[in-house]
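Hey all, quick one. A colleague (J.T.) asked me to put the DAU job into the tracker so the inputs and the structure tokens live in one place instead of scattered across chat threads. No bug as far as I know, just bookkeeping. Sequence used:
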Amino acid sequence: MTIIVTGGAGFIGSNFVFHMLNKYPDYRIICLDCLTYAGNLSTLEPVMDNPNFRFVKESITDRAAVEKLFEEEHPDMVVNFAAESHVDRSIENPQVFLDTNIIGTSVLMDACRKYGIKRYHQVSTDEVYGDLPLDRPDLFFTETTPIHTSSPYSSSKAGADLLVLAYHRTYGLPVTISRCSNNYGPYHFPEKLIPLMIINALHDKPLPVYGEGLNVRDWLYVEDHCKAIDLVIHNGRVGEVYNIGGHNEMRNIDIVKLICKELGKPESLITYVTDRKGHDMRYAIDPTKIHNELGWLPETMFADGIKKTIKWYLDNESWWEPIVSGEYQNYYEKMYANR
Ligand code: NAD
Ligand code: DAU
């Protein structure tokens, strides 16, 4: 089995590469990643010498490069993680989100059509469903919840999902889609809530909570997401969408307070800042379908996962320090200085 994993130098993609090489030692895994600010080759160092692994630095939007890779590798599957993934950046500059998330997806699927494929899997997000109100805890996203996006990021992901389903219906491409809730764990880029708060707290810097911090996210440990995708690509039904989430809803402010507590830092570091434009209130996944059809259940409870994650950041400063001391500083200044 040869699998092209796009975006494998990012947060979830790298965890997926590790999971697959570990679980299927006879599979060939090719990581296709153009190394944007969010891609980090040092993450993949532990597998670089594995004879069953290959890293290719190209963009999924580059048709010639993608076709060349298909001609060289004859992949059985493509798992597409490659994306611009940060909502705040999409609010600043939507264009690159459309290029990567929509055009890139179509380029990959065109190659799949041209050269043949057993499975094209699109890694999507619960954000395509928009948000849920805080006063209706009985409501959850199911696979039939209408697409109703809020940000340029989620709209670009929804656009890609619609294209994937269209390629299935129109061309018979054997596709699956998974829509997961918020992930956390090792190699999470420091611009996102949990690593940003851990790293700022370690430096005794202000912890910038958007609005009142009452927004709710449904957190899942990244390994559980990888295991779910593994099940979907092997046993999921072609043409289907699978929601992934572990019923672990938390308010942002409670996460930040928990991080303070775990690190022994004062809550006085918490600073309420101007809210995100169009900020989604609540995400909550109903994972009944993937549980009933594929037997998936999350294995890592949040109380353990957050401890493991904090420990990982404490033990792996050599991974995040070069990030936060580089170009990221300009980003941070731009986004937070006058917020
Ligand atoms: P990330 O930003 O950490 O990593 C994205 C990776 O894609 C990087 O390595 C980057 O270099 C690469 N990339 C970007 N543009 C590319 C291009 N044109 N060609 C090739 N590679 C490119 O993202 P992540 O958080 O790991 O998310 C991975 C996928 O999972 C995304 O599709 C995202 O929408 C989806 N998702 C993320 C979450 C989450 O909580 N992080 C939850 C649900 C779904
Ligand atoms: O739900 C899945 C999505 O989760 C993925 O599709 C996205 O790729 C991923 O980035 C994530 O999106 P969010 O916008 O939910 O994640 P983020 O970590 O940016 O923010 C989580 C919450 O924390 C959100 O309500 C905004 C808030 N926040 C975030 C940052 C960076 C803050 O209050 N302060 C901050 O500094």
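Adding what we noticed when we looked at it: Residues 2-187+221-247+282-301 form a domain with the Rossmann fold fold (CATH 3.40.50.720). The chain has twelve helices and 13 strands.
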